[in-house]
Design a protein that fits this description.
This is L-rhamnose isomerase. Keywords: Isomerase, Manganese, Metal-binding. It comes from Pseudofrankia inefficax (strain DSM 45817 / CECT 9037 / DDB 130130 / EuI1c) (Frankia inefficax). GO terms for molecular function: L-rhamnose isomerase activity; metal ion binding. With about 400 residues, the protein is of the alpha/beta class. About 45% of the residues lie in helices and about 10% in strands. It has 14 helices and ten strands. The chain has helices at about 5-15, 40-55, 75-85, 110-130, 150-170, 195-205, 225-235, 260-270, 295-315, 315-325, 330-340, 345-355, 360-370, 370-375; strands at about 15-20, 60-65, 85-90, 135-140, 145, 175-180, 190, 210-215, 235-240, 280-285. It has an eight-stranded parallel barrel with strand order 1-2-3-4-6-8-9-10, surrounded by six helices. α2 links the parallel β1 and β2. α1 (about 5-15) runs antiparallel to α9 (about 295-315). The radius of gyration is 21 Å and the shape is globular. Bound molecules: manganese (II) ion. The site of manganese (II) ion has 4 residues, from loops. Manganese (II) ion (MN) binds near residues 179, 241 and 286.
């Protein structure tokens, strides 16, 4: 039997971190469509993120991207976050937008460029000291386009050296979260292409190094929940970057392309205790809202994660275990599918009402007038966007 009260309690405690870049303008390499009311600075991004939390109740932190979100006074940004009802979260480093990094950042054959990249990563830890952030998220665009272009093993050595230097700089409660990606921008080799490479580096580094699973960073058909289960079992699953994809790294709204996959992933997470208070897994969105409005896009995304989590929690694990032990293939599958096919929207509406929230976050945001207000107020200045 599923304990409904336990499900509700777990859902009430779930935390989903929002990416600051989801609120800025974004697009493809073909066109960035600007939207009125988009934030012009990190303070306005923080204010928008606060709206998502205000209507969902489960998104109390915003991840930052350095240098896009760099400010002179971090305490002031922290205060703005606090005023908006949220806090500053994961710090994402950026070593992929400088001409120097054409041949790589920390894996570049030129030691001067490697030093420059490492200095940026270390500066990001300085920022974390000021913002109180726990996690430093590292994604490297490093790789090669042509066979023979560079020495694959030497690049791994350079990567390991940089990671070790960053790891040594971490404070006692800070973590290094290493993200992998199959391809793009490099097309022949990426230096951290998969969970195995990320895991191997994190294992060498130590306890404070964990892997980030970005759901859009795998080959089509990859069984992501298997990766999640293996990493979690090894104590190396540090974070999720949630988004969904039809083709490659589409960065679409999580749960939009394949809600069943999201359910399967979250079932592995919840079954292994990933929602417990002691869990070290950060649930983050990593998305861009290129054509849809951004704040409602984030609210919808948070709701999609909540719905998949609710279904995962509704799996009758006792019945599942009994069916598995009896070798009852169809019975076991039916237990899982029963949970997946449950309409959890009434349960979540009830939960929100019990927390003093509107049961319908999308509608409540639309009625709040915030969207109209930011369009009227945010005139002049340069809108924030991917890369600024
Ligand atoms: Mn990501």
């Amino acid at each position: 039997m599923v304990d409904r009260q336990a499900v509700t309690t777990a859902l009430a405690q779930q935390r989903i971190e929002l990416p600051s870049w989801a609120f800025g303008n974004s697009g493809t390499r073909f066109k960035v469509f600007t939207q009125p009311g988009v934030p012009r600075d990190p303070f306005e991004k923080v204010a928008d993120a606060g709206q998502v939390h205000a209507f969902t109740g489960v998104a109390p932190s915003i991840a930052l991207h350095i240098p896009w979100d760099s400010v002179e006074d971090w305490a002031k940004l922290g205060q703005a976050a606090s005023d908006a009802g949220i806090s500053l979260g994961t710090v994402n480093a950026n070593v992929f937008q400088d001409d120097d990094y054409k041949l790589g950042s920390v894996t570049n054959p030129d030691p001067r460029v490697r030093r420059k990249a490492l200095d940026h990563l270390l500066a990001c830890v300085d920022v974390m000291d000021q913002t109180g952030s726990r996690d430093l998220k590292l994604w490297f665009s490093d790789g090669t386009n042509y066979p023979g272009q560079d020495d694959i093993r030497a690049r791994q050595d350079r990567l390991a050296e940089a990671l070790a230097a960053v790891y040594a700089r971490l404070g006692a409660s800070q973590r290094l979260i290493l993200e992998y990606k199959l391809f793009e921008p490099a097309f022949y080799t990426m230096d951290v292409p998969d969970w195995g490479t990320a895991y191997a580096h994190c294992l060498t580094l130590g306890e404070k190094a964990k892997v980030c699973v970005d759901t859009g960073h795998h080959a089509p058909g990859t069984n992501i929940e298997f990766i999640v289960a293996v990493l979690q079992r090894a104590g190396k699953l540090g974070a999720f970057d949630f988004n969904s994809r039809f083709y490659a790294d589409d960065d679409l709204i999580v749960g939009a392309a394949d809600p069943f996959q999201l359910f399967r992933i979250l079932f592995e997470v919840t079954a292994a205790g990933g929602l417990a208070a002691s869990s070290e897994i950060t649930f983050m969105l990593d998305q861009c809202h290129n054509i849809e409005p951004k704040i409602p896009g984030q609210i919808r995304s948070v709701m999609n994660v909540q719905e998949a989590t609710a279904k995962a929690l509704l799996v009758d694990v006792d019945a599942l275990g009994a069916a598995q032990r009896a070798g009852d293939i169809l019975g076991a599958n039916a237990v899982l599918m029963d949970a997946y096919n449950t309409d959890v929207r009434p349960l979540l509406a009830e939960l929100r009402q019990s927390q003093g929230l509107d049961p319908d976050p999308m509608g409540a945001y639309a009625r709040s007038g915030y969207a109209e207000r930011i369009v009227a107020d945010r005139t002049g200045g340069q809108q924030a966007g991917w890369g600024a």
